Amino acid sequence: MSPSQLDRLVATKHGWHVNFDKQFDPTWRPFARPRVRQLVEYIPLFMRYLRVWYKLKRAKRRAHMDFINPVPLQQIYGAPLGGLGCGTIGRGFKGEFCRYQLVPGLYEFQTVEANTFTVCVRRRHTTTYCQVLTPNRLRKRGLRTWNCAFPKENGHYQALYPQSWTTYDLPGQKIRLLCKQLSPFIPHDYQDSSLPVASFVWYIENLDDEPAEISLMFTWQAGSASDEFFCDAITHESVKVSDEDLSAAGISIRQKLREMKLEYCILGKQESDNTITTRTNFNTDSDTDGRDIWLDLSDDGRLTEKDTKYPKIGVLNTASCVCITTTVEPHQMKTSEFA
What we know:
Elements: E1 16-19, H1 36-58, E2 88-91, E3 97-101, E4 108-111, E5 116-123, E6 126-132, E7 155-160, E8 163-170, E9 175-182, H2 190-193, E10 199-206, E11 212-221, E12 231-242, E13 247-257, E14 260-269, E15 274-283, H3 287-300, E16 318-328, E17 333-338
Antiparallel strand pairs: 1-7, 2-3, 3-4, 5-6, 5-11, 7-8, 8-9, 9-10, 10-17, 11-16, 12-13, 13-14, 15-16
């Protein structure tokens, strides 16, 4: 591999280092087999708990501490998104968005496949590489046509909360990517540390002898991690933010989750030498929609808005996309930033 400057951008050598192909030795399971003596002692407590658990189940609610259906440990987690006390969205060390805690006290441990980053590399007006940046297979119907399963041996992860750094060596492209994830956790500033935000700064290094056009697409799905909490009144709309020092464009996804107002906003930072394109919404359960997004991106490294607008209905698996496109000169580095 050619000499790279990306490793110097990691601010610390401390933290947790792991490759995408990490195999953990033990397989941990929830404790579910108490001794006989313990069973006898806890029968009165368990009967009281069972009454409360059954009452919540009939009301289609989940107990905050569910001892009857314990969650098996998934050895996938990395540094989460979100600040201090504002709820979090977990991230796996392979790039998954998982372990949602949007409803206070309740957790969803599912991975949302549509929430992901994708890279498209173009040289001489031709797409040479287009890849979802996670080694997992995408099983959702609308994402099956996407080129997934990034090579595990080409990814490395490092985390030291509130930051993490993920490095991707794109096979055969002489392109390296570094994603720096940062959540607000600021000493002596409780107010700003409580903001439910996160930034993803992508450093793009071109080790080739010719320029490359790099597009990074950020996709985000409405709703939550599962269908457990009823979600409705979903709307997607384009947004632009600007002040004296900053300009950004993206998509706002508004909805009601369990009667709680919830808004996601995914943005790309506008620079003088980049282009931001969006797709307001598409159905992640539709083969046609998913294929159209993929062909649209891989055709020219940009997204094209469509006229399709999905109605406000209950749980509709709609998602939005924001794409930043920039040209990186030979042996140079550039950044693309999402929030």
